[in-house]
Write a structure and sequence with these properties.
By secondary structure, this protein is mostly beta strands. The chain has a single domain, classed as Immunoglobulin-like (Sandwich), CATH 2.60.40. The chain is 0% helix and 44% strand. It has no helices and seven strands.
Length: 82
């Protein structure tokens, strides 16, 4: 199954509109997206396999790349766990 993942309720991860954010998964996929006008980012086409946990890391690539967030995704529900 393929899903698009947008972090929700990420209290310490707040990219600015237009800011570049890199993402990577524990399955070896990676990409770069720009934050939308509300500062949200979405990793597209993440593959989930039943029973196989996937962690997605989002890293800001602006002048301050100190804020990052690792988001485990449950393949059974396709939702993030905090």
């Amino acid at each position: 199954m393929r899903v698009d993942v947008t972090p929700g309720n990420a209290q310490a991860f707040r990219p600015k509109a237009g800011e570049a954010v890199e993402w990577s998964t524990t399955t070896g996929r990676s990409g770069m997206v720009l934050a939308d006008s509300n500062g949200r980012v979405t990793a597209l086409g993440i593959t989930l396999n039943p029973g196989e946990p996937v962690t997605i890391s989002f890293v800001r690539r602006a002048s301050d790349a100190s804020a990052s967030r690792r988001l485990p995704v449950s393949p059974q529900r396709g939702k993030t766990r905090n």
